[in-house]
Amino acid sequence: MHSLEDYRPIVGNDVYADIHRRARKLYPKHYVHINSTYAGGGVAEMLQSLIPLMNNTGIDTGWRVLAGNADFFNTTKKFHNGLQGEDVNLTEVKKHLYVTQNEDFATYTHIMHECVVVHDPQPLPLVKFYKKKQPWVWRCHIDITHPNAELWDFLAEFIIRYDAMIISNESYRKDLPIEQRVFPPAIDPLSAKNMDLAPMLVRKNLDRFGVGTDKPLLVQISRFDKWKDPLGVVRAFMKVKQEVDCRLVLCGSMAADDPEGEVIYKHVEEEARPHLESGDLILIQFESNVLVNALQRSATVLLQKSLREGFGLTVTEGLWKGKPVVSTRVGGIPLQITDGVNGLLVDPGDDDAFAEAILRALRDPDWAAELGRNGKETVREKFLMTRLMSDYLDLMCDLTC
Ligand code: UDP
């Protein structure tokens, strides 16, 4: 486990001392975060670093994971899609499933903490099933610019029981009578996913999945999710390949709280079939932080072709590796990338523009390298875990000191 001291060479003495100064007022208190999976997706990714680091800094912080069965996660995935604007058939059965699973969890999960942070819609109703003795915070990681109206009304009944709501982007603010704060997500530069890797280890990981680097390598790391547009990535790759011989890797593990992954994977496999045998298109379904790190470090260009994106941690990870990242003007991605300065942005769903942006980066390696260097500086300034710790420490202090 890392200690805050380990981050000092990366973030500097001022940031290090500042976190300890903010933490001092919170020492006797005990906090807890609740989400719905230990692994898979950006929320688990952040909690895996944030929770141990908070404890290491002297702030007692627990982590509980909501237990849910397949029906529950099928329903909450539909709610997730609905919050991103898709139609939802909001039946009484779905509402009942959603609420009772939370009620059951509340009966055997005892909360005696000074503040509770609940992540995303899955555990949102929990607040209703406790005698509220402390502030509750709802941390929404989703792009809620245009949620399905009926679903939003249903969920708002729970949201307004919270004392504060955290969103990833100023533009996600809602007309609600509770405090709303903006915390952009962050990555851990020392985690297995982001730390420097020895070239031998990178090679070993690529070899294991037959990923050659004899031609330019395009990589998208994402759950197999329609909002990540993996089919659009395959289409754009086919256009690029007509001009420049290259290889595409789509790497996506399955998240326990995302039941749609298998179906989307099958569609992608179908679309990719003509290129699978040649080894120029490689699909990987394997959960490994070191593999993700190795792929990001080996990529010539990193891709994130999202159609909706609360924030897009994979973009941050790619920028941190100093790589040119080609992505879309959607959700939290423009917070990270300024087109032509530290990466490339095109409109979501525009396969031609996406392919064109990849080609520009492939054809001008010096410029691509400059984009990568600028991207790394952006992450150092704004999106490292120490900044997220400060955001949480300030909020906890305001709510509980
Ligand atoms: N991820 C991973 N393996 C995969 C696919 C994704 O470890 O095969 C990680 C990825 O590196 C990132 C997180 O899952 O840390 C995805 O976060 P993001 O915000 O990009 O999207 P989300 O999945 O939360 O919608």
Write the layout of secondary structure elements.
Elements: H1 8-11, H2 13-24, E1 30-35, H3 42-56, E2 60-65, H4 70-83, H5 92-108, E3 115-119, E4 136-139, H6 149-159, E5 164-167, E6 179-182, H7 199-208, E7 217-221, H8 230-243, E8 247-251, H9 261-276, E9 281-284, H10 289-298, E10 301-304, H11 313-320, E11 325-328, H12 333-336, E12 344-346, H13 351-363, H14 365-382, H15 385-400
Parallel strand pairs: 1-2, 1-3, 3-4, 4-5, 5-6, 7-8, 7-10, 8-9, 10-11, 11-12
Bound molecules: uridine-5'-diphosphate (UDP).
Uridine-5'-diphosphate (UDP) binds next to helix 3, helix 10 and helix 11.
Q: Share of helix among residues?
A: 40-55%
Main CATH class of the largest domain: Alpha Beta
CATH homologous superfamily descriptor of the largest domain: Glycogen Phosphorylase B
Second CATH tier, the architecture of the largest domain: 3-Layer(aba) Sandwich
Decide which structural class fits the backbone. alpha/beta
Distance between the termini: 28 Å
Q: What integer is the average pLDDT?
A: 96
Count of spatially separate domains: 2
Number of strands: 12
Shape: globular
The major pleated sheet works out as:
6 strands, parallel
Q: SSE order in H/E notation? A: HHEHEHHEEHEEHEHEHEHEHEHEHHH
